[in-house]
Prior knowledge:
This protein is α+β, with helices and mostly antiparallel strands.
Amino acid sequence: MSEHYFSEELSQRQLSVVLHYMDILGATPDDMHFLKTEEYIGDLFPVDLIVFEPTQKFKYYTVATVGLSEYRFNNNFARSELMMTLPLTWKPIFDKEEYYWAPQLLRDIAYCVVGRKQGVNIGQVYLLENPNKEAKYTEFSDAIGGIITLPEMYPLTMFEREIGESFTRFFQVVPVSKPDVQKMDEVGPLQFIQFDLHDSENPLMVVKLKEKQVEGIDKLIQQNETSLKGTNDNN
């Protein structure tokens, strides 16, 4: 197993992803909470998370991946990032499990995508807990997984942006409960993906998240504002 590494900084792609979120949501650095990868297997890119406070432009919390698009799978045209919309009753208090379930769920789905090496598509349902068991994925939520959808609650320009030499698509993850899954299974057609995160041999289980201020993020954003504006002007 490769040596663990602490992800101190953002890659250029991660920064571009953050700028895209900020642009669409109307967010500033003061509206953001980073959940950085505390440790991971050295030959994997880190998938960090970012939590956006409600803004004047978007009135809900948004939890989003920052780094999933470092991976590009052969059967998928575009790179992908994932995000989840949360109500105002949810709070970004990460030392309390009743709030941490949401970023944990999104992070785990992201690493399911990495583990499968098959990319993200609309209509996929990632199940992190067997729906035939009584146990819940977490005791603080009925969610046992999430369904991949278009980012319908967000502006149309959220879905796709050219970053580097390829397009990145931003999908929404809607948490699903056991009754949701049972109804979906009856209606179909959807792609159900069971992924055992509790497998002791699964290397993705070493991934942990820790809230961390990214040093110099204000300066990095200022340096990239010109390129971001140029991208918007071309869209």
